[in-house]
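INTERNAL AUDIT FORM
Audit reference: QA-55
Scope: verify that the stored structure record matches its stored sequence.
Auditor: D.O.
Record contents follow.
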Amino acid sequence: MTETRFDWPRRDLEGAYTLPSRFFYDPAIYEAEKQAIFYRAWHLAGHVNEVATPGHFITVDIFEQSVIVVRGKDGVLRAFHNVCQHRGNRLVTERRGSVRAFKCAYHAWIYGLGGDLRGAPRTERLSGFDASQFGLRPVRVQEFAGFAYVNLDQDAEDMHTLFPGAEAFLLDLCPDMSDMRLDSEEDLIIPANWKVVVDNAIESYHVMLSGPCHKELADFLDFEKDLPICRGNWWTLGGPTREGLDHMFGVPLNDEPYQTETYMNWWLFPATCLYTVPYTDLISTFLIIPRGPEETFVRFGYYSPNRPETKITAACKDWMNGGLGPEDVALNITVQQGLKSFGYDQGRYMIDAERSSESEHAVHHFHTLVHDALLRHG
C-alpha cells in the first residue's frame, strides 16, 4: 500500500474538505480497514441478560471470523473462536441458544463451556494425543454498560480506558439498563460503504432537509440543542424534546414508563451505536460490519425492560422500521452511487464556528479516527 493512497488533502478541521471519494469504494482501502480498524475493535455481541444463565450463548460474526460468547458453569463470561480444533468446522450456526456443551456436527468433538475438549472419538488410538492442547481458542470479552463486547485483538485496550466516561453516560441515560431483554432483531444488507452508513447517522444537518420522517423527528426535538459532541474514541448526538410536547408518533404522552426524555445516539468507534427515543421504554442497537467496499451488514436490535410494552414504544418501533429507517437506507444508497461519479471527489464539510446542531464536525472527527488508524497501519 503506497502512502499516497491514504492522502487526504485539506483534512484540518477549519476549512476541511471531505475524505476523497476513493475511501468509500477502493478495495485496497477496504482491506486495510479490516486489518487496521475492525480486527482491533470492540464489537457488541448482545446484552448480558442474553447470556445470564450457564450454557446460554450468542454468536457474532466479524467478516469471516465468528465468535461464541457463553456463560460458564462457574458464572464467568467467556468468548471463543467459533471453530472446531479438529478440521476447522464451524461449531455453532445459530445466532443464540443454550447448550450443555458444544458438539461439532462433523466428527462429534465435544467442548465444555469453558472451552476445554471433553471428548474426541477414537483419539485414544493416537500416539501422544493431548486433549489439553486442543481446547477452543479464546477471544477477548468484556461487559460494558450492560452489554457483552468481543475483540479479536488479545492486546486490545480495556474499554474503560479506550472510552472514558462512555459507560457512565449510557447508564445514567437508561436507568433500567440492567433489566433489558431482547425484543426483536433485524439484519439488513445496505449497498453502500460502511462509512456512508455511519456518516448519515452522526449529523443532523440533513434532518430538517430530507424525508418526512426526518422532518417529524425535527418537529419533536429541541433541534437547537441536538448537538454532536466528540469525546475522543466515542461521541454522542442528540438532545431533549421541545417544551409542551404532548404527542409522539400519533400517540399521546401519558404516565407509561419510559427510559429518558432525550433523543440520543451514543457511538463507540468504529461502528457501534446505541440510541434512545424520548418517552419510549426501550434502547436500540445499531451495529455495522462491512461486507465489501460497497456493501454493509447492519443489525438493528430493540431491548426493553421485563414488563409489558407501552403504546408509544410500539408506535416508535413502527415509525423507525417503516419510516425513518427506510429513508436513511435510501440516502445511503444514493450517496454511494454519487461517490463514484466522475464529477465528484471531495466536498466541503458544513462545520460552523458554533459547532451547532447542523454542524458536521462529528463526521470530520469520525473520518479523522479512520484516517489515523489507516496511517498507523501503513
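Auditor finding: record pair retrieved intact. The first strand starts at residue 43 and ends at 47.
Action required: none
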